[in-house]
Design a protein that fits this description.
This protein is α/β, with parallel strands linked by helices. Helices cover 23% and strands 30% of the residues.
Length: 250
C-alpha cells in the first residue's frame, strides 16, 4: 500500500458547514492511522474506512479542535457497534485517556481497555505499524504538542500539527515529499508564538527542502486560498490548499 493522505478536516478553531476541524487519514504499509480528531472528522473518517479497522489514532495535542471527536470515536467503538477485533492504539499526549474517561463519568480508563489502548507520546517517539513508521517531534505551542513524520516505502509525509516557529519543525520536515503545514494566523502578535503565518509555513518548507507544501488549519482572519498564495511566495516551490475529501498519494 503506497503512502496516502486523505484530508478529513482543516478548519480552525471550530468546525464550519462542510469543513470539520483538523483531521487526516494516513495510510501506508498495510496500516491506517487517523491523525488528529477534530470535531466533525469522525463522520468524515467513515466515508473512507471502517473505524474498527484502524491500526492507530495519533493526536498532536489536546486542544479541542484536534481531539474532541476522539470522544465520538471511543463511544462508537465501545457502544456503537464498531467494536474492533483488538484495541486500537491511541498515541497522544499524557492525560488524554483520563479526559475521555472523565467525559464518560469514570475516573480511570480501564473500562475502555477492550476498545482502545492509550499510549503516551514524547519527543522522538517512534511507532512501527506494519510498513509505516511514525516519528513524533515536540514543537512549540501553548500546550504540549507534537508534529509527525510518517515514512513508508521511501516516501515521507511531514505534519506540523499546531506550532509556533521552532527549529524542530524544519528537522521534522527535512526532505519530506509532502509537508502538511498549518498557516493559522495573518501575523504574529507581540510576545505570542503559538501558530504560523503563511510566510512562516513557506519559509520552513523552503528550509526543509520539502517537495511540496500543503497548507492547512487556516484561521478565520485568512482564506485558505490567500494563505496558500502567501505561503507559496515564501516557499518558491509547489504549494496547494488542503481540502476536505482530497486523497493524494505521496
Amino acid at each position: 500500500m503506497p503512502l496516502t493522505l486523505t484530508t478529513l478536516g482543516t478548519a480552525s478553531p471550530h468546525p464550519r458547514p462542510g469543513r470539520p476541524c483538523s483531521g487526516y487519514l494516513v495510510s501506508g504499509g498495510g496500516a491506517e492511522v487517523w491523525v488528529d480528531a477534530g470535531p466533525g472528522t469522525f463522520a468524515e473518517l467513515q466515508r473512507h474506512t471502517d473505524p474498527a479497522r484502524l491500526t492507530a489514532i495519533w493526536i498532536s495535542h489536546l486542544h479541542a479542535d484536534h481531539c474532541a471527536d476522539l470522544l465520538a470515536a471511543v463511544y462508537g467503538l465501545a457502544y456503537g457497534g464498531l467494536t474492533p477485533a483488538e484495541p486500537v492504539a491511541v498515541y497522544a499526549p499524557a492525560g488524554c485517556g483520563r479526559r475521555i474517561a472523565g467525559f464518560l463519568g469514570r475516573s480511570d480508563t480501564g473500562f475502555l481497555d477492550p476498545f482502545v489502548e492509550f499510549r503516551t507520546l514524547e519527543d522522538g517517539h517512534e511507532a512501527r505499524l506494519g510498513g509505516l513508521v511514525l516519528t513524533s517531534r515536540a514543537v512549540v505551542h501553548d500546550t504540549e504538542a507534537y508534529g509527525l513524520r510518517a515514512e513508508c516505502g521511501g516516501k515521507v509525509l511531514a505534519y506540523s500539527g499546531d506550532t509556533g516557529p521552532c527549529e524542530p519543525l524544519a528537522e521534522l520536515a527535512r526532505d519530506a515529499d509532502l509537508f502538511l503545514c498549518e498557516a493559522d494566523i495573518d501575523r504574529h502578535r507581540e510576545g505570542e508564538q503559538v501558530h504560523l503565518t503563511p510566510e512562516d509555513a513557506g519559509a520552513y518548507a523552503r528550509e526543509a527542502r520539502a517537495g511540496e507544501l500543503l497548507v492547512t488549519h487556516v484561521g478565520p482572519t485568512l482564506t485558505p486560498e490567500a494563505a496558500t498564495d502567501r505561503a507559496a511566495a515564501a516557499f518558491g516551490g509547489r504549494a496547494s490548499t488542503a481540502r476536505e475529501g482530497d486523497v493524494r498519494t505521496v
